[in-house]
Amino acid sequence: MSKNAHYGVTPRQILQVLATAVKELGIRHPLHVHGCNLGVPGNVETTLDTIQGIGGLPMHLTHIQFHSYGTEGDFKFSSGAAQIAEAVNNNKNITIDVGQILFGQTVTASGDNMRQHANHKHASPNKWVVMDIECDAGCGVVPFKYRDQNFVNALQWAIGLETFLLVNDPWRIFLTTDHPNGAPFTSYPHLIRLLMDKSFRNDMLATLHPEAQKMTTLASIDREYTLEEIAIMTRAGAAKLIGLKDRGSLAPGNWADITVYTDNTNREAMFEKPDYVFKDGELVVVNGQVVATKWGTTHTVKPDFDPSVEKGLKDYFDRYLATKLGNFKMSDDEITEDGRGSITVHPTT
Predict the structure, then answer these.
(1) What is the pTM of this model?
(2) Half-sphere exposure of 81 (CA within 13 A, CB side)
(3) What does the pLDDT read at residue 1?
(4) In a shared domain, residues 163 and 59
(5) 227 falls in which pLDDT band (50, 70, 90)?
(6) DSSP string of 290-344?
(7) Residues 141 and 153 in one domain
(8) 216 and 67 both lie in a single domain
(9) Is the pLDDT reported for residue 182 higher than 90?
(10) Same domain, 94 and 173
């Protein structure tokens, strides 16, 4: 990896220093990494280099479907899911979420305003906004419609599912659509059915762009997720990853976050309409209808640090940024404004 021309550091050094800092501070959640070259054909090599470059330290890679692309085939766009899954299976320090795309209308939103500007020509419908905030930050919102007869979209769909089905450990992979960029989270029941029902998955695959069908091994993958694996991937695994010892299971003494379903072989219909949902022991949903609102909890860690670092940070903000260091400090009152929710401070390890 080449050094940055101005700062003289490599991407590998940046990753390792940050991951080491998170570990030494005792923060349970591993370093949360949005990889480089998002959406670029050939980025599978960058992702594999990132997995090796972290040097065995804990690291979570986000929406990895968008970082799993090869350059094979007539369209110079191919699936790298098998390579990524093998690397995840072989490196127990790595966790991932998938960022599955699903067909239909959604909207992409990102702080990477230059990438969003580059994508604005694909806006559907053609209404989009990209803004730069005094060079300190950016935002781009571009509506997008994923189409099953578009070669790239169809293969993206298959790449995400390949990743889900080829990563062995449900405790280290998480069900996401990179909401809303790949699909809205309301499509999760449909995604769960695709993972649990091979025949449904293959019937849908058979309707996609024919060239995309040729570029995926999805039809030959027999795995079907079990209910237990879905519960791990969507509930227990997430609680474990961020160090919540009193959530993610039905053990005595845990907070009662419980969803009750009537069993249905059509898993999409089953997960779309829970019979009951309890949040912190309070009944909030009955027969798919919301009957009460329960504000959530903001989970934080507050590790000790040397307060003298704030002097250097303040000088940097004052010299280079339009916002001030004080704008980045969050008080407890700001987090729980108007009594909405509460704060739980977790001890560091």
Answers:
(1) 0.93
(2) 28
(3) 62
(4) yes
(5) very high
(6) E------EEEEE-----TTHHHHHHHHHHHH-SS-GGGG---HHHHTGGG-SEEE
(7) no
(8) yes
(9) yes
(10) yes
Separation CA 171–CA 240 (nearest Å)? 8
From the number of C-beta atoms within 10 Å of its C-beta (0-12, 13-18, 19+), residue 322 rates as exposed
Query: Among 49-63, 67-81, 90-104, 305-319, which stretch is predicted with the lowest mean pLDDT?
Result: 305-319
Backbone angles phi, psi at 348, to 5 degrees: -80, 160
Instruction: Give the chain's domain count.
Output: 4
Scan for tokens 């599978």, then name that residue: 44
Domain of 216, in residue numbers: 1-101+149-249
pLDDT (tens digit, 9 = 90+) per residue, 127-158? 999 998 777 788 999 999 999 999 999 999 99
DSSP secondary structure string for all residues of 192-252:
HHHHH-HHHHHHHHTTS-HHHHHT--GGG------HHHHHIIIIIHHHHHTT-TTSSS--T
Give me the pLDDT at residue 115, please: 85
The answer on 318 and 192 residing in a single domain is no
Cα gap 188→310, rounded to integer Å: 42
Are the C-beta atoms of residues 144 and 108 closer than 8 Å to each other? yes
Residues 6+ away with beta carbon under 8 Å from 48: 83, 84, 87
